[in-house]
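Why run this: before we spend reagent on co-expression, it is cheaper to look at a predicted model of the complex and decide which construct boundaries make sense. The entries below are exactly what would go into the expression plan.
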Amino acid sequence: MRAILEALKEVSRYKSAVVGLILIAILVLIAIYTVFAIPYSKVIQLWRGGEGIWLENPKNAMPSWVNLFPGTNLPKTIIVSSRNGGEKSLEPLQGGVRKVRISLPFDYSYDGFPKELNLFFEAKYKERQPHLSISWITPDGRKVPLSDRGIKASDYYYISLDAQLTKKLGGQPPQVGLFTDPLAEKPVPFKGRYELVIDGYLFEEGADFEAKLVVYGQVYGLAGTDHLRRDLMLAMLWGTPVALAFGILAALGTTVLTLFIAAAGVWFGGWVDAAIQRITEVNMILPMLPILILVGTLYSRSVWLMLGMVIILSIFGAGIKTYRAMFLQIKQAPYLEAARAYGARNLRIVLRYMVPKAVPTLIPQFVMLIPGYVFLEASLAVLGLGDPILPTWGKVIQDAEVNGALYLGHYYWVLEPSLLLMVTGLGFAMVGFALDRVFNPKLRQI
Amino acid sequence: MAESTTALPGKQRLSVAKRSVALETLGRLVKYVSTRGIALFLAAVIGVYLTILIANMGGYVDQIKIGEIREQVGASVLANPALQGRPASEIKKYVEEQVELEIKRLGLDKPFILRSFKYLTAALSLSLGRSEHLTSDSGSRQVRLILLERLPATLLLWGLADLFLFFASVLFALYLSRRYGSFLDRTVIALAPTSAAPPWFYGIILILIFASVLRILPYGGIVDAPPPRTTLGYTLSVFKHLALPVLAVILASIFITIYNWRTFFLIFSSEDYVEMAKAKGLPSGAIERRYILRPTLPTIITSFALMLIAMWMGGIITETIFVWPGLGRLLYEAIGSFDTPVIVASVVLYAYLLAITVLLLDIIYAIIDPRVRVGGEGKLRL
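The model came back. Tokens follow.
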């Protein structure tokens, strides 16, 4: 314990290591928060649930903070419903028919056009559907009739996809046409109070309906959304524990097992040593990434199976030769002679006398290995072999790649996970470099 | 050699002893090289066999393949006008016959274990056979041709990047080791952790900057479509496409490589004999050549050789990101379409190259590094 504290003190002399430690601490805190705030089952339900859950989110919206750039004022999503923010009035007509007027007003003061316009309905009726007549009132008082339709119990009207309306607006998509001044030369959104008016006719006793207008913005949340309207924040948050767990477990498993195997090989010598050497040679011939891809394509893409494969393939890696050389020296040490003299058993000698001696070299190695494994998980995901259920940073990059984010200009989609990957990699690498210098006195003089 | 001969008086005996020592040394070297050679060959055989097992999922891939064959034959029968209107039983019989034929053609009728050894011997004797799905651009199914067609692209990209990386980093590291602690030196140390990210990562960022935002370099591929007619135009177009991937590969490891070499040289330049040479007043060029580069030569050669092997394999993800038609991407495509012969051929080539390089390294080590003991208990040094 004291040795660890001392090492930490030593490490804190390096500025880069302090920065790295802070980065790691922040990531760990985020990871802990995420696991508790959004439990595993919930994140899977949200991430895999499809468009239904995210219906009110815009597609491929940029993160909201882009509005902080001077001169940028992109629309946020506006939701007005008859239950919240709208007005609803009732007027009985003859013959048991009632007329319901729902007015959904909203203020629009952005420089960009909305991404989409959708209207969602909920209706209560037994046999005869309510009939609606929907119209749009612009700030300058123009009234544009949108549609006349009957609605089912749960219905929608995708205003943006209305081809007839597009034609009526002179070929402009409704989310642009409904917001522009017809006399202006350039399509600039009219600022002011818009209103969507629905005149509904109810033909039955007890029939009723509610309406909700969603004006999809161009920005959403802290991280934006992807092509399936999912909040990217979810993936950014959940990517943290996955990346940290994968990186740390893979590095830990590899270094500890390698160390133990090298120590055992040296101590027992003879055929054990020879077998370990031969296995290392065979393993060297096996290319790691192709094998991982094979396993991912043919067997399973579970992140934990991949973790296991990575550890198995890395144990007999180049590290074993370094440790072996070190243990060959340690084996000659007098205190091992002493241990043998008092009758210590083999396992005890390996575990209590040899392995601890190598720990100083192990710790920096362990920390330096972590970023590699974090990126390995991302690499597999980029190849389409990411975990099938969990959202990870690599999978977001892959989604972005596949959906042409770089061609279409959705840069945030690629940059956010990349930045997080880079921060994680840098954090561990910076600490690792400092540890290397602390634990290897030969480097310290330099 | 001096140890064993100084005790003998007289020039004559000395040279006789020298010759016998040399012979003994040669014998030992041959023995050593042959044992190493056999061990490495066995390692290659086991490695390739394991790959064959994994690439076939222990035979499960065959079921997938038979299913695919059935589907294809079914589709071709539906599309065949000659069979239209025949009775269903006749068509069914025809389908079965075709499936049987196809299974026989691919050799799927024999048990997997038998086939796995057939694959192994074929792979080891480098008769790479025919692919199952992938074809070369000219339409050939010969795995050899498919590999050869992809080789130039891989060698161009990785050769350029790796050779530059190697020489630039060694030379620059030597320069830095002479003036450690300088601003440049500290910058390289500070930048070294950025190499935690792999080339594809830098690739994406570079594509974003140069292709998406600035629009001055292409997103990927190896040449414009349609390719320019003139040789000069073609070459220029290839170089334009080469810029980003090469830069990505270099960026991903230049700082860590320089850092490692620099540290390595620094450790060697703090040895006593270097201090001694400095004290003698030797010029720094001579010190570098004789006292720093010489003892570090084995390491430099190893890293050069390993770099050459890595070059052959290409990079699966980097090539995928840049749509670069190299060996790495081929391997990825082959895995995606369960094309065992192509997968096995890629791995066997890699295994052979690696084994040969390691063996050559062992020999070179023995020759250039007097400290590497070959056999014996240290009485004799090579």
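The beta strands of chain A are 78-81, 87-92, 98-108, 116-124, 131-137, 143-150, 154-158, 192-202, 208-216. Chain A has 16 helices and nine strands. Bring this page to Monday's planning discussion.
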